Amino acid sequence: MNLFKKFLDYAKFSTGDFEKIFANVEMPPCPEVVATLMQKLSQPDIDIDQIVPLLESDASLAAQILKIANSALYGLPGKVTSIAKAVSLLGLTEIRNIAVGYAMTKTVKDPAKEGFHIGQYWSDSIFRAIFSKKTAEHLGVESDEAFSAALLQDIAIPMLMDKWFELYKDVFYAWLEDNRRLHEVENEILSWNHAQAGAWISKSWQLPDIFTCCIGLHISSINDLKDLNLADTVVAPVALSNKLSVAFKDSVSSEEVEREAKSLGIESETLEELVNESTGMVSTIAGALGIKTS
User: Is residue 97 part of a domain?
Assistant: First the structure.
């Protein structure tokens, strides 16, 4: 059974419900250049020579690829000065992942609502993305998708705050005054949560199934993922990252984080190292993504 099938079979996520729930909610489309890239990369035997001109056709995307390729996230030897070299060194999968991150940075806008701080949102999202990639590498699971999948995990929140605020504001302001996690408040008030909404966005953008799985399951516990035989996939580092926060209040206790990490074989000292390394890279990666976190 593949990851997406497991995801759809998950008892806490009713197959197809998010299609009905969000059918009338207008969400921003995936940027055209990224949508075209996804379409091309889905074709068998795609030629790199077909991809480079597409990436170069969007100056903003090309610039972001070069910034990310030259960042500490990859630690490549020497400076990458061309898209062709970036594609050659990183490979098409990583280029796709960078493009997905680009789509998010271009699509997510500040809803400018009281209590929501876009800089804090980006700090948390970038921290979780870096942490997921480093944790995936530490665990020896596929790490290619970890950064972008984790970056996307909360993509629905600012969109719901912006596009569906009259309904969503009750959830948001209740959460600000509550000790529970956001998805728990969402489930109680709306009977759905931002993980489901994010999965719907991923599916509507026609992103790879692994992204939809990571987004839809990022609020899960590690034990839940073990029950689904997903604890040894990239879904686990993304879900673990969701338990941590450097800006928002929506994080679990340090004891619970340590228990969740230990169930993946990550001891407290290693967890602390991963958190500190990731925290130290936030401003650098934010700069590469062209994002202001303060």
Answer: yes
Residue 294 inside a domain? The answer is no
Residues of the domain holding 119: 3-26+110-289
C-alpha angle 196-200-205 in degrees, rounded to nearest 5 = 150
Q: The tokens of 108 are what? A: 């997510």
Of 214, 193, 293, nearest in space to 247 by CA: 293
Number of domains in the chain: 2
Q: What is the pLDDT of residues 101-157, one digit of tens each?
A: 899 999 999 999 988 999 999 999 999 999 999 999 999 998 788 999 999 999 999
Distance of CA 252 to the CA centre of its chain: 19
Residues present in the chain in total: 294
Q: Could you tell me the pTM of the whole model?
A: 0.89
Helices (H), 146-247: 146-151, 156-163, 165-176, 182-190, 194-204, 209-217, 222-227, 235-241
Q: Evaluate whether residue 179 is within a structural domain.
A: yes
